[in-house]
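DM from R.C. (forwarded with permission)

"hey, sorry to bug you on a friday — could you get me a structure for this? deadline for the figure draft is monday and I only need the backbone to look sensible"
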Amino acid sequence: HQELYNPSRFNEISVVVVDYMMPDLNGLELCRQLKNHPSKKILLTGVANDQIIIKAFNDGIIDCFLPKQNENIIEELEINIRKLQFEYFT
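My reply, with the result:
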């Protein structure tokens, strides 16, 4: 309840959305570097295979995975961001 009315709560990064394919490192490497940060991590990809994704979940590197080829990706992303924000702040 206190956090709901905390004006500085929007200064915290609660959810990070990364793409698997990035120029200098892949999204999982970035999430691995952020593993000890309390933010929730969403990985978007059209390339990573199931084994890579399952390992990332099991290792606690990501909290959510969304395939880019999903035709409702924007809606799915919005739903999962809200869900993970709720988890973060509770």
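R.C.: lifesaver. The helical segments are 27-33, 50-58, 73-89.
me: no worries. The first strand starts at residue 15 and ends at 19.
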